[in-house]
Every structure is written in C-alpha cells, then in structure tokens.
Design a protein that fits this description.
The chain is α+β, with helices and mostly antiparallel strands. It has seven helices and ten strands. The protein is globular and about 70 Å long. 25% of the residues are buried.
Amino acid sequence: LAARADSLDRDELVVGLMRLMGLLGERDGHSGIYTLHEHPRPLRLYPLRVYWFSDGLALVDGDGLTGERGSKLVAIEHVPIDEVVAKVTPLITRDNEWSLRERIPYYLACAEVLHGLGVGTGGAATFTFESARGRRDVELEPVSAAQYSSRFPLFWQPPAPPAGAPTPLWVRHRSKPQAVATMQRGRFVYVAYNSTYDSVDLAARIIRLARRPTFRR
C-alpha cells in the first residue's frame, strides 16, 4: 500500500487502510477504521438505514424513502448487492458473524468506501430497491458522518407493534444501553446488553434479582 500510495486517491487510501485493519479478522471487533468515528477529514454516508433480516438487506429508514421502507436493497450504482457486500466484507473487523452483519450497512452507506472500491464516484449514488411493486432506483447525496449519526441513532428502534399486540422485551429495551427486567413475577430475569461499558451496577441488579425465592432462570 505504501508503494502504491502516490498513485491512489484519498478514498482508495482509506479503503486500503481499512483492508489492512481487516486482516485482524474475527475476535478483534474493537479495532478498525469505522465510518461513523471522528476522523481528521470525516467520512460521508448516504442518508439511509438498512437492516440485515433473515431474507436479506432491507430498508428500515431513509430521507425521502418512506415509500421504499421494507423494500430489499438489491444494488448500489447498478452493482448487485451481493457483489458490493463481498467487496466491503474484507474491510470490517468484527467479533463474530453477527457483528459483521451489524456493521456492513454502515460501510455500504459510506461514499468514500464505495468510491474507493470502484462503486460510484463518491458523489450522488443510485440505490436500487425491490418490492412487490417492482424495482425502483433512488439517487441519494451523501451527508457528513455527524449528520448521519444525528439522523439515525446508533440504537435502532423498530416500529411499534400492531394495535393490541404486546411489545417484545428486546424491542421495549432496544433504545437503552443496558437494562434488566423480570418475567412471570420474578421467575425469569431478562438482561438487555446493547452496549459494552461499565457493568458493575448491572451485575449487582442481576445478582439481587437472582437471589429472590421465586427466581428460576
């Protein structure tokens, strides 16, 4: 990479450095170059959020994309999404397959990453969505990482359940870094661990609830 540096543009260098960090592979998910972190020259992301469901990547939110919510993301700049995912995967450090799936959408949305990989120009980009109504191309302009983080908070909150349906515990506590709840009058202790930081108080609450006579699991 150093030998080729003079012939590369900035986005290609960013991707090259990400690829070097990606050599750490799995079990090193706290090291890496991340699209939303602060950098001397902040990266830019397209204003959409996709989530990896069991049947593929689908749009859950996006500026001016209300009609596309729930649609599958099938291409970026007319490159099939499977090919784009294959291109970004080597750039991402992770702890396991699940953290890789959680992080891939932030790299798919990054203008510098896409351009550095040869997908698009780094400016406006075309995203193709597919639903029962057919396919639709949408052109988006990138925004700063700070604007993206403000528009799409880290803890994605799923839509409210239908009227009369109970809200699952994982949804109820999704917006909190950590939470503890009980089920069936204390028989079960439910722990939501959405973010890693000081867990001393969390552990103390779990132990206190687990010492109750009704506790089972």
